[in-house]
Amino acid sequence: MTARTSPTARQQRVGAELRRMRVVADVSAESAAGVLSVSRSQLSAIEQGLRAVSTERLRTLASHCGVVDERYIAGLTVLAQPPERGWWEAYRGTIPAGLLDVSELEWHATRMHTVQTVHLPGLLHQGAYARAVFGSVIPALPASEVELRVAHRMRRQQVLEGDGARPYTGYVHEAALRMQFGGRRATREQLEYLCAVSERDTITLRVLSVEAGAFPGAGHAMLYAEGAVRLLDTVQLDSAHGPDFTHDEPQLTKYRSHLQWMDQHALSEDASRDFIHAIARDL
């Protein structure tokens, strides 16, 4: 088992799932370490994502903890496998690691849902709009770093393209549609692009108008990424210090409820497209 110094969010998730498995089964650390033929400190490192765990050891622990859900075990073994070098690794060390974790989460998701209240969905940004978003942060980023983040954001969009396109549903508040990042022209072109991509079979865009009033989760943007099974779903929230990830079942349940609320109160797909067209025409 190779030690890591900075585990990715995905590696930390594997460790958290193994610990959850053990705690739910009321299996002590000593017992689990003995079954895996590792020391207590090595088990702790595994549960923190600091050390890798083999498929054999993962399945051994699952059996010891009485876990019989084969879909869950199989999904977890996929997460635990040494990853191939993803395209996002080319950006490691040049942009914040949290942004790379978002890329990896999107890449391995089976389906994605987002809620945006100020910015338009990052996976649907055009260059000018993304450049304006990154160019407005405080403290200001060097022009070279802005361009790196824009390039990275454009690369992220490949998860919505081609035969392997992940099904995607984006809920966008009217306020985000009216924010003019990059000026009138850039905003108009961005809105027209949203209308165009919303015609794809795998992309659904729904608008929440201001007339809907108060809504859950108004203070932050949210990505809900579905995993191989429900237990492996992940929520990512934007914050001032970077992306936060959560996968505790009570939190997942809460954010599923948020998405259900959005589904019930947002405009239909056709009405949303017409709404976006109308705003674009007024610019």
UniProtKB/TrEMBL annotation:
Enumerate the InterPro entries for this protein.
Answer: Cro/C1-type_HTH, DUF5753, Lambda_DNA-bd_dom_sf
Q: From which domain of life does this come?
A: Bacteria
Give every HTH cro/C1-type domain span: 18-71
UniProt xrefs under Pfam families: DUF5753, HTH_31
Specify the protein name.
Helix-turn-helix transcriptional regulator
- Which source organism? Streptomyces caledonius
Organism lineage? Bacteria, Bacillati, Actinomycetota, Actinomycetes, Kitasatosporales
